[in-house]
Description:
- By secondary structure, the protein is of the alpha/beta class.
- The protein has helices spanning 2-14, 18-63, 72-86, 166-176, 202-208, 214-232, 263-268, 288-298, 353-356, 376-381, 386-396, 411-429, and strands at 92-99, 103-104, 108-120, 131-143, 148-155, 239-246, 252-259, 312-319, 322-325, 336-339, 342-346, 361-367, 402-405.
- The protein is built from 12 helices and 13 strands.
Amino acid sequence: MSRLLTRCVRTCARSRSGQVAITFALVMLPVLFATGAAVDYGRRNAAKAQLDAALDGAVLAVISQKTNSISSTSLLNMETQFRAEAAKVPGVTVTSFNPGTPVSNSATLSLAASYTATVKTTISSLMQVPVMNINGSSSSTRNMFQYINFYLLLDNSPSMGLAATDTDVANMKIATGGCAFACHQHTYDNKGRITGDSQTDFYHVALKNNIKLRIQVLRDAVSALVDQANASMSLSQQYQMEMWTFNDSTTQTRLQAMTPTLSQIKAAAPNIDIAYAYYNQSDNQTDFERAIAVMNTTIPASGTGITASSPIRFLFLVTDGVEDTGGSVTNQSAGFQIQSDRFIGPFSPSTCNALKSKNVRIGIIYTQYLPIYDNDFYNRYVRPYEGQIGPALRSCASDGLYFPVASGGDITAAMLKLFSTAVASVRISN
């Protein structure tokens, strides 16, 4: 094009004929119009890029709001934001804006919008093309936020008085003359006269020697759980919690009813303590079947999770997994009937079926039962099935929500991992 133009100009400069000048003008007009059209088309593309970016921003501003629904007000605000940004683009006039109808299901929320506009031309206007048309669209999809209710069922039977770490176990044995447990003697004196807490029992020995017990670590884990839940909420009151402790068939305590104010759970955490064992009281103080039966009557079926009135529901069970109870149990043949009123055996996975049938998801932290091979009672009544304890709890837990913690392990880390995995499982399954 440039060579032709140069040749034409030189030819016209040498020519003495007016006809050549006319020919030059006729040749140049299409060239000028083509050049002008190219310039205007470039302006049009630049304007479209700016408008598309403005539309993306307006759609994202709405879809990122912390809500599971998009109101008509939000749609109006989206249009207002887009038009305000479009007004900053020279020569542009928005001719229409169409906010699409939000689309939601149990898993995702989607929003789309589109626009049409014109941009003024420069040289192209001489060819009766005063404006160029522009149109664009944008859409975005995100996961629905899920409302979740958590029910904490915490084993506070005497075995949770095990010293928490290997160092604590060693120190506890030194302080007590060989016992790693601070249990089975809590709140009675050696002569059987109930006078309140005996300051010489092993529980108080642990306290006086700053030896941390599993029950204390459990308190810390609950507090850390509350902190993580508060920090990770995307919606107001997205997570609610209720907290129970359990041991024998008559002692199941609701420490805090279901509440959206999670600080109330944290405030109740210091009340998590080892169950009292009085003089001449039966030692059978871990009754899973009756505790979970209470949970089954307490916990409604899981909902969709889309609204606060229809939350997904989780049961978090923290336990050492050994049943020690009176009366009959489901897996009678799995353990030992020591006396007519005392059974010791592994947890029965079938105990969880009623909750699972209501789509209640079960997370379990197994505080692994400490093998005590120098103890005749352990060797006789626990050791024969010790390999079944963990697998039985795993069978109860929902997929991916089983976390064993060995003696000396970090219960708090397991609790936080259980929480994050539970929340992620909701997003994946939906």
